[in-house]
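The instructor's notes for this session suggest beginning with a concrete chain rather than abstract definitions. Hand out the sequence below and ask the class to guess, before any prediction is shown, which regions might be ordered.
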Amino acid sequence: MKFNYLARTEKGGSQSGTIEAANRSAALDVLQDRGLLVLKLESSERAPFFAKEIKIFQRVKRRSVFIFFRQLAILIDADVSLVQSLRILGEQEDNPRFKEVILETADKIDGGASFSKALSNYPKLFSSFAVNLVKTGEVSGGLKESLEYLADHLEKEYYLISKVRGAMTYPAFILGAFVIAGILVMVMVIPNLTSVLMESGQELPWSTKLVIFSSDVLRNYGWLLFLLLVGFGVFIWKYNQGEEGKAQIDALKLKIPIFGKILKKTYLARLAENLSVLIKGGVSIIESLNISGKVVGNAVFAKIIFQARDDVKVGKTVSSSFESFEEIPPLFNQMIKTGEKTGKMESILEKLSIFYNKEVENIVNNLSQIIEPLLLVILGIGVAILVFSVFMPIYNLAGSI
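After discussion, reveal the predicted structure:
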């Protein structure tokens, strides 16, 4: 394979060219043996269309990111240099996209950039929270500890989100299957039964007429309904991209029965965890609030956190700012106030994070137990309506013959 490279010579000059090697790692070794500091190295050969990898299948999972930081901390603790550690992890990474990012990060650091600066070039993979925590570790000389904090934090967040999504998957699957089955019955079964009922000449109940009307609409205008649903989905997605739209949708999410409560406690757990890790890592309270607001994941809570950041700048406390927002529970705010008075803010926040994580887990576990009978009731009602509306007139017709 041929590779284009850009490198810095020992005298400080720049050099570019093409080199042929079996793979990228071999090309890098050859250039380094020549005394060159490689700044950029990429393949010059264009792969055929059928050999190109589709980007959507190269999505980097959250789990891969926290495993990366944990393995990096272990290698650094073993006195392996940062650049060498990154190259080791890059070569063993299976995901092509993540492998490319790790190796590019190693090249940037080898070229003189800091680790945090190199990570900041990939905001979709490494949040401002991760970048700032790494930067704190670089400044304080405790990079290993910062990476361990970061890995622990990302792992907790990953498993919390996975648990919430897992609780939502089952009811979504059952409801989806029910809707599909209902549509198939309406399109394929009801029309045949309708012709029999119409020929009988008997007066049909209003529920039967409604089912027949719905069947006709689905058969004749189903494509239009599908386009309208897709259009509505695209509109909501686009609307959510705007600042005002996202704020309104995020506020609406918090008001959804049951699920809004889960989301609210999830954001509180995330806020407490973020602040705890950042403050423990040596980041100032103002910067910690600024970073937490960017990564909390909800526009309503982001606004609250940014307001607290601005209030702290003018001399107020975090608790005095939080107490004016109903989204912040009194218990959460009282614990923050206690942390401010005792000077143990990070430990108080850590306890709050544990408390709200357990609260979310308890709600999700209870929700899983409630949803099954609730779904059975909904499905039973749907089947009962269908039987009463369609099959009862047929039974009446059969009985009159």
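Then share the key points. The chain is about 75% helix and 5% strand. The first strand starts at residue 2 and ends at 8.
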